[in-house]
């Protein structure tokens, strides 16, 4: 499953990847995907558990064979991907630290594996330290430069990211093409990003590499959704689950189409509830809360939001859900100050336009319009093309009586309603 983790930031996207439009033609058909819901068997999970048992016994019998630890760690990482259980991610970290310490951080593949684990945990600065350590070792330099691109993008160090991207340039390389797609998406050139992602998919199909096909199909599902190509998005997600029926990310993508495009809240909830039985993560409660809000069901909306926070309390997710926490707290004047505190931590951890957007939005919601505008103009405007960030920017402009800056963003957002979600339709129209 190693390749599935090549760009965690593309896959770890959790909630608002897709969006909304007026109710129009039917895209989905429950017969297409119902067979993938509520499956009892997950061959990937069973295989990973058997592998853990096998390698653990071997390690117990020969504790000097440190290489076994990496085998065990890789399978715990697979369990995390399929179950969402954070304990498996931390177990992976524990084993990789043990392995790295035994090797005195001299084995480059093990150092890189720990860096990828830290990326999944949103511990990006620590991941960068390890990536640079791997680069200094020198072995497998191109693999390390792929990792460096991934980390630098997360940290907002874009000139450094591009340097690493240029070094690994190879138009016949799947790994290069998906990063080139990521770079173009970051620049706001979605059409070019899709072109490169499709080239990567073609390579995966030509090589008949199941892991790469799953990865490229699911990410194309995202990209097509961004571009308003909803039928293509749906078809791409279906291709993903046909290869891996337990791939919850693609099923969630279908749930978003059902909710945002077709406004079928009952069916969207059915899909989400089925996924959550095997892959239980806090973001599912937030999605259900959004759906309840659209239905006008206040008690369900609050119930699911409370369930989200309850799950956050029961598990230590570190910084992984900081963005969502900040956005939720910012919505309520009574907790907006908390949003500022979280946003400041995010800015310190990763000074990207996304992090500064959280900070500007939080300041707007405590009534400090001028501070919000100052941050937005300096760190957000022209630096991110994500619709929700653009909506925040428009609201900040509006609150500072800048209608000439607000209107072009409103016009743009009206074409991004699918991605934003049904609850934003009224908000955008009121800009």
**How many distinct beta strands?**
0
Largest sheet: none
Quaternary class: single chain
**What name does CATH use for the topology of the domain at 321-431?**
Serine Threonine Protein Phosphatase 5, Tetratricopeptide repeat
Number of DSSP helical runs: 25
Looking at the overall shape, the CATH architecture of the domain at 321-431 is Alpha Horseshoe
CATH superfamily of the domain at 321-431: Tetratricopeptide repeat domain
CATH class of the domain at 321-431: Mainly Alpha
**Unreliable residue stretches:** 1-23
* Structural classification: mainly alpha
Beginning-to-end CA distance, first to last residue: 45 Å
Q: What is the string of SSEs from the N terminus onward?
A: HHHHHHHHHHHHHHHHHHHHHHHHH
What general form does the structure show?
globular
Indicate the mean pLDDT: 93
The value of Rg in angstroms is: 22 Å
Strand content: under 5%
Q: How would you describe what is shown here?
A:
The chain is globular. It has 25 helices and no strands. The protein is mostly helical and 431 residues long. Mean pLDDT is 93; it is low at 1-23. It has helices spanning 8-11, 30-33, 43-61, 67-83, 86-102, 108-120, 124-137, 141-155, 158-167, 174-187, 190-206, 210-226, 230-243, 248-261, 265-276, 283-295, 298-314, 322-331, 336-349, 353-365, 369-379, 387-399, 403-414, 417-420, 425-429. It starts with 7 loop residues before the first helix and ends with a helix. It has a domain at 321-431: Serine Threonine Protein Phosphatase 5, Tetratricopeptide repeat, CATH 1.25.40.10. TPR repeats lie at residues 214-247. InterPro entries: TPR-like_helical_dom_sf (IPR011990), TPR_rpt (IPR019734).
């Amino acid at each position: 499953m190693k390749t599935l983790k090549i760009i965690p930031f593309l896959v770890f996207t959790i909630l608002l990847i897709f969006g909304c439009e007026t109710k129009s033609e039917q895209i989905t058909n429950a017969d297409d995907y119902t067979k993938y819901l509520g499956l009892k068997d997950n061959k990937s999970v069973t295989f990973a558990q058997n592998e853990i048992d096998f390698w653990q016994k071997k390690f117990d019998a020969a504790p000097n064979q440190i290489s076994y630890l990496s085998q065990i760690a890789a399978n715990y990482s697979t369990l995390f991907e399929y179950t969402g259980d954070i304990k498996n991610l931390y177990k992976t970290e524990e084993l990789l630290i043990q392995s790295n310490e035994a090797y005195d951080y001299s084995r480059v593949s093990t150092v890189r594996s720990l860096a990828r684990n830290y990326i999944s945990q949103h511990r990006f600065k620590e991941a960068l330290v390890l990536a640079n350590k791997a680069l200094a070792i020198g072995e497998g330099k191109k693999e390390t430069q792929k990792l460096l691109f991934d980390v630098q993008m997360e940290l907002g160090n874009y000139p450094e990211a591009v340097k690493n991207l240029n070094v690994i340039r190879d138009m016949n390389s799947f790994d290069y093409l998906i990063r080139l797609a990521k770079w173009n998406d970051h620049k706001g050139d979605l059409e070019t990003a899709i072109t490169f992602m499709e080239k990567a998919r073609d390579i995966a199909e030509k090589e008949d590499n199941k892991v790469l096909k799953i990865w490229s199909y699911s990410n194309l599902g995202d990209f097509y959704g961004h571009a308003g190509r909803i039928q293509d998005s749906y078809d791409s997600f279906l291709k993903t689950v046909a290869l891996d029926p337990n791939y919850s990310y693609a099923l969630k993508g279908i749930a978003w189409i059902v909710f945002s495009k077709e406004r079928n809240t009952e069916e969207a909830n059915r899909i989400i509830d089925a996924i959550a039985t095997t892959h239980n993560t806090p973001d599912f409660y937030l999605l259900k809360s959004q759906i309840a809000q659209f239905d006008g069901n206040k008690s369900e909306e609050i119930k699911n939001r409370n369930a989200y926070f309850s799950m956050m309390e029961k598990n230590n997710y570190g910084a992984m859900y900081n963005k969502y926490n900040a956005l939720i707290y910012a919505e309520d004047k009574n907790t907006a100050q908390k949003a500022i505190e979280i946003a400041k931590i995010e800015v310190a951890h990763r000074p990207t336009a996304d992090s500064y957007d959280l900070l500007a939005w939080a300041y707007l919601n405590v009534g400090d319009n001028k501070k919000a505008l100052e941050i937005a103009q300096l760190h957000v405007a022209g630096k991110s093309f994500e619709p929700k960030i653009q909506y925040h920017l428009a609201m900040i402009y509006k609150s500072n009586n800048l209608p000439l800056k607000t209107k072009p963003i409103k016009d743009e957002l009206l074409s991004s309603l699918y991605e934003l979600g049904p609850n934003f339709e009224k908000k955008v129209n009121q800009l």
